[in-house]
Specification:
Length: 465
Amino acid sequence: MTSEYEAMTRAAAAAIAYRRGVAEAETNPVADYAAMIAAFDAPVPEGPGDAQAIIAELIDKATPGIRACAAPRFFGWVIGNSHPTGVAADWLASAWGQNVGNLISAPAASAIEKVSADWLLDLLGLPRESSMGFVTGATVANFVCLAAARSEVLRRAGWDVEALGLFGAPPVEVVIGADAHATVYSGLKYLGLGAKRVKIVGSDASGRMLAGDFERVIKGCSGPVIAISQAGQINTGACDPFAEIAPIAKDAGAWLHVDGAFGLWAQVAPDRAHLTRGVEAADSWATDGHKWLQTPYDCGFAIVRDAEAHRRAMAISASYLPLGAETEREPSAYVPELSRRARGFATWAMLKQLGRAGLAEMVERHCQIARHMGERLADEPGIALVAPVELNQFMVRFGGSGAEGDRATLATVKRVQEDAIAFIGGALWRDDWVMRVSVSSIATTMAEADVAVDAVLDAWRKVRG
Ligand SMILES: Cc1ncc(COP(=O)(O)O)c(C=O)c1O
C-alpha cells in the first residue's frame, strides 16, 4: 500500500470517528476563524509533500474549527444532516474521479442522475416530463430555472435571448413576493433581469403571497412575465397559495417559478402536502438535496417542466463533446457548468436510505418537533411566537416590542450560542430581531428538541434576570 492509500484510510477513519461522536460534540467550534487562519497560514509549499502527513496535518489543524452542524441539536440556518450514507456515496464520487460533463465520460453517474431525477419527480409530485439539473444548491437551481423562464417568455415574444442577449429585447416583467429569499434576487442579477426591477406582491404576517395582490400586480404587467413564488419562507416556513396563484399566472401567460429550497419537501409528507397544494401547476421548481433530503453539501435540483427551454438556456456544445442530447439525457444540458461533481450518487443513496416512507416520517417529525418547541417556548412569560408554526421553521421574540425586545432577543440568542447546548441563530423579521429555529436534521428527535428548549428557557431566564 502506498502512502496515498494509507492517507485515504486515515481520512475515512477520522471521518467515521467524527460522525460517531458528533452527537456529543460541542455545538461551537473550539477555534474561531482567526485561529484557523493562524493554524493554516504558511508560505506556499515549495516541494511535494507526504500524503499521510498532509492528511494528518489537515485533521489536526481543522478539527478545532469544525462546527458540529450534523449534531442533533443544531437548529441554525436550514442545514440538514449530511447523512453518513450520503457521505459514503459522496466519498465514492470523489474516489471514482467522475466528471458528469457528459454521459460518455461518466456513464454510471449520468444514469444514476436520470434515475434519481425520475424518483424525485415522483416523490415531489411534479410533472414527469420535467427535466432536472443537479446543481450546487437552491441558489443555482433558482438561477437555472429563471434562465429557462427568461428563454421561454422571450421566445414566445419572438426573441432569441441565447443568441441576442437582452439588448433590444422586449422588457421582461418580474413579479415576486415581498418575503422572497435573497438568493432569488441573485439569480435575477446574474440574468440581467435586475434585482431592483421587480414588481412586489404583498404578503401576509407569515410571508405568504396574497393571491389577490398577485392578481392585481400580474394584471398590471404587459409583455413577457416571470412570477416568482416560494415553498418555505426562510423564517416562517410559509408556502405561497399555489392553487390560487398558478391559474392566475397561467391566464396571464406568465411563467411561474417556485423557490422550494426546503418547503417543496412538504409534498412527501401526506399530512403536510396541503401546504403546497397546487405547486405542481408551476413551470419550474428549485430545491435542495442538502437540506431535507439530508445529502452532504453541495446538492440541489433545478426542475423545469419545459425541458426544451431548460436545454436552450443551459446546453453547451463543442465538437469534442459527445452528442448524446438528442436521444439520451445529457447531464450537462441542464446545469451552468460543464465539469462538475457526480451529485447523483449521494442523491440516489439518500433516496434509497429513506425511501418514500422514511422521507414522509422525517418531514412530519420535523414539523411536529417545530410546533412542540414553539408551543413550549411561547408558554414562558416574555417569549412570543412571531407567526404560527406550519412547517419546520419558526421564530420567537423575547422581551416584548421595540428596542428593549431587540436587546433581549439578541442577548438570548448570544447566550444560547455561548452555552453551546444547542445552536440557534437570529434574524431580522419586519425590522424586529428574532430567534429563528430550523428543524431540518434527521438526527433531531423530540427528546433532543426538549433539551434545546430547556437551554433556551434557561438562557432567557438569565437574560431577563
Ligand atoms: C427559500 C430558500 N431559497 C434559497 C436558498 C438558498 O439555498 P442554497 O443555500 O442551498 O443555495 C435557501 C437557503 O436556505 C432557502 O431557504
